[in-house]
TrEMBL record:
It comes from Pseudomonas brenneri. Its main location: cytoplasm. SMART domains: Semialdhyde_dh. The keyword Cytoplasm applies. The gene is argC. This is N-acetyl-gamma-glutamyl-phosphate reductase. PROSITE patterns: ARGC (PS01224). Keywords: Amino-acid biosynthesis, Arginine biosynthesis, Cytoplasm, NADP, Oxidoreductase.
Length: 309
């Protein structure tokens, strides 16, 4: 039986390039990409996508939708790394550790939407607590996250590594209209009934993310505390790969969180910090926006889909 034919569409972007590098030395796959002269040729793209077993789309949202619309071969399976299909009920959400059933669903899915980088951290923290009833589904969630500039794609890399890198901002908060495209994804996939507030930022480092969610214990059910929240996360992720929950003892010893601590890995580290006297808890996630937040997740999903056939 021939090894699966994988078409990477958009292999010149930050995510696509990482995926291609990760897969290039694998003997169990055959890779296809568009040549430079055909990258803007819809007909050639359609021919390639209909000839593959699994297509990995690393394209802007509308281009990803167009690519999917061009599929006529019912055998073609898709992993979409854009945000075009992340809230579409006909697509399987590609966060394998999100629920006990998710990996199996991804393994047999025809259409898989790769999670966004920020949503990976937010959903990873929120969903287990919401499902356990420790966090009300209508809790007024506030999310703050700082990503490396590669999260902005080639534009961000050029700003910080190109000719005018000396003029790049050291830190910039954006999404000030509170309408970031990741918000519906976070709300739907975590299970919140109310829209969370999400404030993202870029720092002057290439990759890595720290995402934090503050909680007021007085707004939770009586008796719910940081230890229970931590135990819930530990239980949810006890048998999963790539997600690690820091012990409470280690968390209490922390004086800072380094967004680059897990760079070059596909791991997601979850942390629960507390001020028991003040009745406040800080949930935090640390991971590589190009690892677990993008290319790493896509490769994990690809492996599940190949194994599930």
């Amino acid at each position: 039986m021939a090894s699966p034919l994988i078409f990477i569409d958009g292999d010149q972007g930050t995510t696509g390039l990482q995926i291609q590098q990760r897969l290039s030395n694998r003997s169990d796959l055959r890779l296809m990409t568009l040549s430079p002269e055909h990258r803007k040729d819809p007909q050639h793209r359609a021919e390639m996508i209909n000839a593959c077993d699994i297509a990995i789309l690393c394209l802007p949202d509308q281009a990803a939708r167009d690519a999917v619309m061009s599929i006529e071969n019912p055998a073609v399976r898709v992993i979409d790394a854009s945000s075009a299909h992340r809230t579409d009920p006909d697509w399987t959400y590609g966060f394998a550790q999100m629920s006990p059933q998710q990996a199996k669903q991804i393994a047999t899915a025809r259409r898989v939407s790769n999670p966004g980088c920020y949503p990976t951290g937010a959903i990873g923290l929120l969903r287990p607590l919401l499902e356990a009833g420790l966090l009300p589904r209508d809790y007024p969630v506030n999310i703050h996250a700082v990503s490396g500039y590669s999260g902005k794609g080639r534009v961000g890399v050029q700003e910080h590594e190109g000719e005018y890198a000396s003029q790049a901002l050291a830190y910039q908060v954006y999404g000030l209209g509170l309408a970031h495209k990741h918000v519906p994804e976070i709300q739907q996939q975590s299970g919140l009934t109310q829209r969370p507030m999400f404030v993202p930022a870029y720092g002057a480092f290439r990759q890595g993310i720290v995402l934090t969610i503050p909680l007021q214990l007085r707004l939770l059910a009586p008796g719910v505390n940081a230890v229970q929240l931590h135990a819930c996360l530990m239980q949810h992720y006890r048998d999963t790969e790539h997600v690690q929950v820091m012990s409470m003892q280690e968390a209490r010893a922390l004086t800072y969180l380094d967004p680059q601590a897990l760079n070059g890995t596909d791991s997601l580290r979850l942390v629960v910090c507390e001020n028991d006297e003040a009745g406040q808890v800080l949930l935090a996630a640390v991971f590589d926006n190009l690892g677990k937040g993008a290319a790493g997740a896509a490769v994990q999903n690809l492996d599940l889909m190949i194994a599930g056939v």
